[in-house]
Amino acid sequence: MRHYLDEETADLPEAIPERVLSLAVFFGAIVAWVTDHLPQGDSLTNVPCRRSPGRRRCRGEIVAELDRTSGHIVWHCPLCGDNGLIHGWEDTPWDRQHHPGAAPTSTSPATTH
Ligand SMILES: [Zn+2]
Fold this sequence. Notes:
Mean pLDDT: 83
Distance between the termini: 20 Å
Oligomer: single chain
Bound molecules: zinc ion
Radius of gyration: 15 Å
Number of domains: 1
């Protein structure tokens, strides 16, 4: 989901269309929940479904978990069946994983291999 981010600031661009922004917030909330609950995981998120089938807003709450073999976050709505997967979420602003070895207060950029 890095394509939502501005390349220079690595944050959401200011001129992002509202429809795209709401999708980014939706996926971002799922990523934040899943990474925040690692490593055990808590698949029942607090993220409300974004769909409105038949013009009535779906009242489902998204179920999501990290697929450790693919590295994708897979999600679905138990009510309407909407589903998908999120990849490229690592190191986005929503990635709340605690990187082992990194000091919690450190502000220095993380190194990648
Ligand atoms: Zn739904």
